[in-house]
Amino acid sequence: MVRVLIILFATSSPVLAQAPEGGFCIANATDTSYIFITETRESVRQVEKIGPGGMLCASQTAAKDGIVSVFESLDALEGCARIIPRGVVETLIAYAEFDRCAWSSHGS
User: Fold this and answer.
1) For residue range 69-78, what is the model confidence (pLDDT) as tens digits?
2) Which fold has domain 14-103?
3) Where do the structural domains in the chain lie, given as residue ranges?
């Protein structure tokens, strides 16, 4: 007889979060609040100020990918953007202007 112990736990860590089926997300693993944006190929856009540990998701897209962006403020001209596949949570590790942010997909 084989016994299996399954341990489940809940966390607010964006690294362990999952994207909604058919959607994609951007998460904040920094210690600062930033303006996060999700945009589907169908032009459905969400903009929200997200604090440390927070996440913003595009809940549904028919496309294979979408765009996530982050800015220091609503009036900032420069920020960082990534095209990510549906089903993925892209996590911001460190913010730097001019598209020099560190992302979880960089392996850094």
Assistant:
1) 999 999 999 9
2) Immunoglobulin-like (2.60.40)
3) 14-103
